Amino acid sequence: MSHLTIGTAGHVDHGKSALVEALTGVHPDRLKEERDRGMTIDLGFAFMSLSDGREVPIVDVPGHERFLKTMVAGVSGIHLVLFVVAADEGVMPQTVEHLGTVRYMGVGAGIVVLTKCDLVDEEWLMLVEDDVKSLVNGSFLEDAPVVRVSSVSGQGIDRLKEIIEDRLAGLAVAEDAGYFRMPVDRVFSMKGFGTVIAGTVLSGSLSRDSDAELLPAGTPLRIRGMQTHNDTVDRAVKGQRVALNVSNVKTADIQRGDELSEPGYLLPTSMTDATLHCLESMEEPLKNRQRIRLHKGTSETIGRLIVLDRDELTPGETGYVQLRLEKPIVAERNERFIIRGFSSMRLLGGGRFVEVYPRKNRRFRQPVLDYLEAVTGAEPDVLIERVMHHAHGAQRQKSIQDLVRSTNLNAEVLKQGLTRLVEKGELIRFPDHRFLHREGYTGLKDELVNLLKKMHRVQRLKDMLPKEAPRQQLSWEPADAVYDGLLNDLDAEGRIVLTGRSVRLATHTVELNDREKRILESFEELGDAEPPAVFTMNDLPQVMEDRSMITEDLQVDLKADADMIRNMAGYAMDQAVFAEFADRQIMHHRALESVRKRLVAYLESHGTVRASEFRSHLGISRAHATALLDYFCDLGVTNRESGTHRLAEED
Fold first, then answer.
1. What DSSP state is assigned to residue 117?
2. Which pTM does this prediction carry?
3. Residue 310 burial (CB count, 10 A)
């Protein structure tokens, strides 16, 4: 009970602020305009003393329809509502709207308070009380106590205090995921302190000198100090009303509707999927693409309503919708919200967020509707599995931090669920602590195999392919650990052959046609050519013509078949028939070995050799001679000394 909050709700001028003053001794209207007009236009706060010496905050909200958004901000985070109806006026339009608002925002306990009872007689009071009971019939206030009071004379105030304390004793703060969140409802500057942010802690806890994040801007904040009811504290927990002295931000950069959160927990989103209930008292249905005002926490955002599962949402119906917003918000799964008319400002309905980071969904898509139905109110394991299965693109591979954001589950509950799902084979865990749904993983393996088939058809003379080649053509690029896992598993299954940095299908073999076989055979002439043949892939056809290798028996047309010759040169490289000894410089392997032997013999006879001497000795260009000497030096055949080369000494 130490961290429960009371709130008021009811029509304008029905005595909410006077009731708070009678209960606390403090008038909650803090603005001069409010006191002058006798009407609350902003949230007011006061603390009610309990019999055991503790104090509980009371949030006083405005009743006028123009300030309903402020009323929503006040209702967010309260546990017990004082539903106020003035005895001299009875149920009024905002009475109905405030009842809908507190119901949609998840308030589960309340007390009906009939104010200004000193202004009417008993017969009228009975009529008003019957009217109120009829209004709340079927709601969470159906069995709530009805208390008659007069804030002026004090009638019923003591009894109301007793009932409040009794009701609070029966309430408990619901468990949450443990991640700090606090919607901002006030921001101001204090001389000597700087920026102060006030609100009610929605979930988790926050300690002094810890870090927080201001959203949706993403501004990092440092908590320099905190107070609750003018008392300095070191830690704020769920349900506490707290003022935070923060650094690194100006008051002008913060507004009501912003939110403080644990760093990295939430991401801004401009689109959410939700379940939405259309208010029963609506005269018209909610239409697709209708412009609305979304209220959640302390924020108000304009957007459009996309009805996903029907043509329109009639009064009293609940359906799936997508909310497309004009500015980003932050939210959690199952978080409550209400919507109002864009122009009329009247309450239209309320609901819960089901998917906070959805794709732009088209209407009447059954897979989307099936997914939303599956995750609505789902148990943790079901939620995790469905979220993983529904993910798309690179979002299929998720870290624990990704899943914290996607599911909003407590970290320990999430880890336990992941362990169970991995053991069942529903999820695959990788060494980098990412997870992938088994169907997504199976699909990725099949996609990779099909890509290899296509690549082998295009490059049919390639026995092996670079193992990174298919990765770049997948529908989404997996992380290193995931891709390595794919290759290793496919290799273990016998579907591919993985060798070092190369890969091929297990069924792939290179089969040469007759012309290709003849070309490969003709390459053998380059192994014994004099002077030694040095060439590139591009100039190989010309080298073959210059050396009279293009004969009628070969049945090759130099111009028409140049690409085929180059492709066969690549095949010869793969088969180690050709060898590259410098950048794009190629020789037949026998010719290269012959050059090595001739170099060794020359050095044994002469001691040293320069590039110009080696050039003359072989009858090749100086550039080729230099490249060959460097190649054999790198191999350890020779040592380089001041522009000359000599045989390396054997160890």
1. G
2. 0.81
3. 15
